[in-house]
Amino acid sequence: MLRKIRIILAAVMMIGITWLFVDFTGTAYHWLSWAPKLQFLEAVLALNVAVIVGLVVLTLVLGRIYCSVICPLGIMQDIFGWLGKKAKKNRYTYSKEVRWLRYPVLVVFIIALVAGVGSLFQLLAPYSAFGRIATNLLQPVWQAGNNVLASIAEHYDSYAFYHSNIWLKSGVSLIIAVVTLVTLGVLAWRNGRTYCNTICPVGTVLSFLSRFSWLKIHFDTEKCRNCSLCTKNCKAACIDFKTHSVDYSRCVVCGDCIESCKFDALKYSSKSSITNRTSETSPASEGRRSFLLSSTILATAALAQDKKKVDGGLAEIEDKVAPERQTPLTPPGSLSRENLETRCTGCQLCISECPNEVLRPSADLMHLMMPVMSYERGYCRPECNRCSQVCPAGAIKPIQKEVKASTQIGHAVWIKKNCIPLTDGVECGNCARHCPTGAIEMVPSDPDDEESAYVPAVNEARCIGCGACENLCPARPHSAIYVEGHEVHKEI
Predict the structure, then answer these.
(1) What pTM value is reported for the model?
(2) Euclidean distance between CA atoms 297 and 38, whole angstroms
(3) Would the pLDDT of 130 be above 90?
């Protein structure tokens, strides 16, 4: 019963979080906005006290079940491990805790987090690793399937589906996602939860608490026949059948050992229920434990509650080239570049959810995989605040649409040598017509000649840095106007 409940809850969590990352319509967020907020590291960075306390209590009562039910990377490893067991049964062995690697990695992780070395701690963060895999590898597959359905629907004059652009957001992020998936897949296939119990900093932190959990896996030595099936099926390599001992710091309470034991010699209970055994465990008591397991996890969950560019349909427009900004643009709600760098775990949920194709992973070595804004494919519409609504770590704080429309994240800068009224001698004014705040007006290029070509003049006090002017500027490949970011955002 324990294993079945664990599998059902893990499947719900895995499907839900994966859907969040691959969904490009925003539908998933309305149903599953609470799921990312249950992730331990993200809750710590967001100072989400209710979730932190809930996860601590969960671990002290049930053990390290977070790693096998709530963490998507842990669940993904279980899937690979299950496939490995299909290929070869009873493949695991007991091994001692690798302390010489486990704790130094945790120390390095904490130092990187405090020092702001985002690239390092993002690589080690489990939820972020899964997010990169889902965004870079799974979302394009999901979009491709959607586009096939959209083509079929279009053939029958139906609008049930619409085409979605599939584009490479970052080559570096894609490579990291592929390497992460292959590495974790091989490790989990061969050795089960090697990553969780040697590298993962969240697993190491929770291991301190799980040693003192109330409910644990215990041996009934009178029933045990030392058949070793429990050890050979423990993907955490934490059960030593020879000494009838379990390393609770690594046990993730998956229930595989109980399922594989043919002599009913393993129980998930408090120690006293085995040591002072006055009667056989009844089916009713098993049901009570199963109910406790499922209700505690569910209570914790409740805490957090196609586009081809053409000009007039006649000629293809040359792709734009991103400008070299002195200060990177960060999303409204991030407050400042420093706040984003301090709290962002690089999970890329905001990037996968951005409907305007503005956010993409940074290519800066010190800030790899953090979101940055660029306006070659779209602009940050004032009425859209989806990225701030999905961030679980507080790197992009929730911002209301009316506040976003008056939040200045940067200002537009005009580049005279690229402006087509001067280079081609034709009228334009695209930037002024589409500026949502009226921060741009067209003025004569020669103040003394009203008949001279009209060029844009930017009122920096009114500009919010949305990028509509940069995106819609017809100059190619470099826009005649671009947005320079601000270190600290302000409301105007």
Answers:
(1) 0.83
(2) 11
(3) yes
